[in-house]
Amino acid sequence: MRDNIHMLLQVARHDPALLLGFLLVGFYAALFIHIELKMREAGYKPNPFTHPIEYHGLPFEYLRIRHKYGWSPWPAYLTWPCLVAGCVLIILGVVWLPN
């Protein structure tokens, strides 16, 4: 356990962009799951295997019906920026490694 924490701290010191990128992609996943669970509560049951385009449009559908249920718009507003910023930081962290 101690070795794992030491390795994580070493990565954070050596390449913080990579670590921040992974954290943002994880935050995107958590927000998307939150949106999916809210939509399932509302009776909207998308299937990612039969309708992948519709499934990835869940944040837009969430924004469309959120007034009816009194949900906050921020999870939908933050999903795609977190994914894009996270991917950019991961690419920068891998390609542009600091010495």
Notes on the protein architecture:
The chain is an all-alpha fold and 99 residues long. The protein has one domain (2-95). Helices cover 79% and strands 0% of the residues.
Keywords, separated by commas or semicolons:
mainly alpha; 99 residues; 5 helices; 79% helix
Estimated helix fraction: over 70%
Poorly predicted runs are none
Q: What structural class results from the helix and strand content? A: mainly alpha
Mean pLDDT: 87
Spatial extent as radius of gyration: 17 Å
Head-to-tail CA distance between termini: 27 Å
Order of helices and strands: HHHHH
Topology, number of strands? 0
Q: Write down the domain tally.
A: 1
The major sheet is characterized as:
none
Which overall shape is indicated by the principal axes computed on the Cα atoms? elongated
Number of helices: 5
